[in-house]
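Pipeline run #58 for the internal structure catalog. This entry was flagged by the ingest filter as a single-chain record with no existing model, so it goes straight to prediction. Upstream metadata was stripped on purpose; only the residue string is passed forward. Reviewer on rotation: M.T. Logging verbosity set to normal.
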Amino acid sequence: MNSKYLAIIVIAVIIIVTTVFFLLGGQVSRSISPPGGPNALPAVEVRAYQGNDLSSINDFRENSIRGPQNVNTSDYRLTVTGLTNKTDVYTYQEILAKYPQYTKIVTLFCVEGWDATILWEGVLVRDLILDAGIDPRANTVIFTAHDGYTTSFPLDYLMNHDILMAYKMNNVTLPAERGYPFQLVAQDKWGYKWIKWIEKIQLTDDPNYRGYWEKRGYSNTADLEKNFFSN
């Protein structure tokens, strides 16, 4: 074969191989995830969990004292104070980063006659209280909401049960009308004890404290097996 034609063939082969190489290289690079990992898709509400049917987050009725509160988490602070060894103040992100998160299916029963069974996700109130330290005189815990709503519980109730301060329901972040950033999951208590938009947890030695509805004749214990107008 003429050396001239041989040289042309060799050059053509080199060009073809080089082109294929870069084409394949381009395909590989496009398959690599961008920095920071894959993009997260919006959370989807679940309606069943471990064989249990769940209510919709839209099944709740709006019955707060001043309407849904729109809390900006960049300004939000949760204060744990009162008869404690120290006062703790947290941002929303600090709570989620510091404390273990748990899930639990609990049904809220409202005195209006409706109920909703939800998969709640949150942190344990007990963990927040233990970190602040408990003064031996403390026997009651008062919760205060962004809208001024208050309610209280015996300290033993919160320490001896896995009571959640929830930030998610049915796998989605709490909407504003459901108490974002945090709602108390007060299991075995009537719905008026499930305080939303929690901003302060205060330990006290006053077992006779009455919250918003309790001052208006509702039971302070709010046990489900009892009438909510009796103590």
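catalog note: Residues 1-35 form one domain.
catalog note: The radius of gyration is 28 Å.
status: ready for reviewer M.T.
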